[in-house]
Write a structure and sequence with these properties.
single chain, 168 residues, alpha+beta, 5 helices, 4 strands, 35% helix, 18% strand, globular, disordered N terminus
Length: 168
């Protein structure tokens, strides 16, 4: 799914220009993962809990957190925050399924939700659940694994990524 919800406190992606990629061809430095017990890690885990609560209410099995999907989601959120864009495809043309494969997850199906500007797990989940396409990803009972990533830009704006997949 390539649609993205409109964040509550920020303009819609369609009405706000994205920043052009930097002129250098070298990729940005990989961000350090959140420290265990950090607010970022707690927010990521809370999103998983909220996703699984929605899935339970819809009769779906809970998703299992997979560290490869977490790595892919965190890296994409950090890349969007660092390079100032908001899209499933990076300025270099890398799409979400490629990022998941590069993280080492071989899948039979995959999906991604992204959002920015939502300050906490509850608000980003409301945004996703109020968007038909995002809700469909969250409630897709055929998807079995999840990774959530959260990163902040220089203005402390949060960028969220959910990567979903089913192993091959």
């Amino acid at each position: 799914m390539t649609a993205t919800p409109t964040p509550e406190p920020a303009p819609t992606p369609e009405s706000s220009p994205t920043t052009a990629p930097p002129t250098t061809t070298s990729p940005p430095q990989a961000p350090a993962p959140p420290q265990p017990g950090s607010q970022v890690e707690a927010y990521e885990q809370r999103v998983v809990e909220l996703v699984n609560a929605e899935r339970a209410a819809a009769g779906c099995a809970p998703l299992t957190v997979d560290e490869r999907l977490v790595a892919a989601a965190r890296a994409h959120s950090a890349d969007m925050a660092q390079r100032g864009y908001f899209h499933h495809t990076t300025p270099d043309g890398v799409e979400f399924d490629e990022r998941i494969k590069q993280a080492g997850f071989t899948f039979s199906s995959a999906a991604e939700n992204i959002a920015y500007g939502y300050r906490d797990p509850e608000s980003v989940m409301r945004g996703w659940m109020n968007s038909e396409g995002h809700r469909r990803n969250i409630l897709n009972c055929r998807l079995t694994h999840i990774g959530v990533g959260l990163a902040y830009d220089a203005n402390n704006r949060p960028y969220w990524t959910q990567d979903f997949a089913t192993p091959r």
